[in-house]
Amino acid sequence: MTAPRYSSEFLRAIPKADLHLHLDGSLRPSGLIDMAQRSKVELPSYSEEGLFELVFKDSYQNLGEYLHGFQYTCAVLRDMENLEQAAYELAQDNIAEGVNYIEVRFAPQLMMDLARGITFDRVMHTTNNGLKRAQDEYNRSDAVLRDGKPPFAYGIINCAMRMFGNKGFSPYYTELFKMLGDHEPKQVIRTAAMEMVRASVRLRDEEGLPIVGLDIAGQEMGYPAHNFKEVYEYAHQNFLLKTVHAGEAYGAESIFEALTLCYADRLGHGYSLFSPDMIQDPAITDKADYARRLASFIADRRIAIEVCITSNLQTNPTIGDVSNHNFKHMYANRLATVICTDNRLVSRTTVTREYELALSAVDVPLKRLKDMVAYGFKKNFFADDYVAKRAYAKQVLDYFDRVAKEHGYSS
């Protein structure tokens, strides 16, 4: 690890963006307890200390253990009062640590329950209500109107699920399996994904909801992105931007597939890009050369990678220490990287903490640090038009210079 070049106070004060942020993995622990008690959802513990000991740990043995806690967060979020509270508190928590822009992602169909009147539209409006309430409160505050801090903005990325290990996990999917038949699970999954992307475009265009992107989440192994080619084509044809969980737990060929078959505008995780040993396609004989050329292609096209260091360390314990994380290779190869949290609760982290980790692994001068910050505002899926996006990015980066000067840093 390198000696810290920047103080924690400085990293907290600079403007930041989080473009890979799962709503159902980022509840406040106190909020989760409050919601569970209100909705009568059973938790392993009703104290924050107990939840941290039993569920949301500092480290995990494997991906399965990491995902264990989502059964509790998803259960409480099927209550619309809880969903709005979670969205509101997530925006508040980001604002409190100097995060000016977030793209909140989740699988809205996991929250649906048609028997109780919880439709796709209701889930999306409820989530947006919570985010917008926090946005409006902050953007009317003295911090913005008097002190000149950049306003807060957000977008919503809707996730299709690659697979479902438990058909009873969501009432919506249970009904869909009944309707289409258990014998064709891939058909059920694709049908759900296409329904979701069509509804997302409709709500964006007809009701103005800031649904800015499409993602697929869930286990990569055995559930390739090409299963969702038609879904991504629909998004592409309707100007809905696209990110893909790729290269998190599978080889670089999954990243190539995300780019070439799913038109990915960004990559979620992208960790395996610099781990040629993870490539499994027998047609790729020179794995190191394949990875090198793919990395150069990504860098040249300025395709941003959503880097989630703590999450990678937790779901892949073989990495060991942050000094072994592939972020250092991404940095050395001049890739556009955006520092993200993935799951603030499950990974017990913040954007500031993720910056601290990244900067402990690589010595980054101020100019390159500003570039990293800039990627979060230039590579985001901003809900407004490109001219407004450029103006917002300039405002944010001017504020970065102001904070750097106030903290005694100069390039």
3D structure, described in words:
By secondary structure, the protein is α/β, with parallel strands linked by helices. It has a single domain (8-406), classed as Metal-dependent hydrolases (TIM Barrel, Alpha-Beta Barrel), CATH 3.20.20.140. Helix content is 49%, strand content 12%. β4, α11 and β5 (241-246) form a beta-alpha-beta unit. The longest helix has 23 residues, at 185-207. 47% of the residues are buried. The model has no long low-confidence stretch (mean pLDDT 93).
CATH class: Alpha Beta
CATH topology: TIM Barrel
Classify the beta-strand content into a percent band: 5-15%
Seen as an oligomer or otherwise, the chain set is single chain
Architecture blueprint of SSEs:
Elements: H1 8-13, E1 16-22, H2 29-39, H3 48-54, H4 63-67, H5 70-77, H6 80-96, E2 99-106, H7 120-139, H8 142-145, E3 153-161, H9 171-180, H10 185-207, E4 211-217, H11 229-237, E5 241-246, H12 252-261, E6 266-269, H13 287-301, E7 304-307, H14 309-315, H15 327-332, E8 337-339, H16 351-361, H17 366-378, H18 386-406
Parallel strand pairs: 1-2, 2-3, 3-4, 4-5, 5-6, 6-7, 7-8
Question: Quick recap of the structure?
Answer:
This protein is an alpha/beta fold and 411 residues long. The protein is built from 18 helices and 8 strands. It has helices at 8-13, 29-39, 48-54, 63-67, 70-77, 80-96, 120-139, 142-145, 171-180, 185-207, 229-237, 252-261, 287-301, 309-315, 327-332, 351-361, 366-378, 386-406, and strands at residues 16-22, 99-106, 153-161, 211-217, 241-246, 266-269, 304-307, 337-339.
List keywords for this structure.
single chain, 411 residues, alpha/beta, TIM Barrel, eight-stranded parallel beta sheet, 18 helices, 49% helix
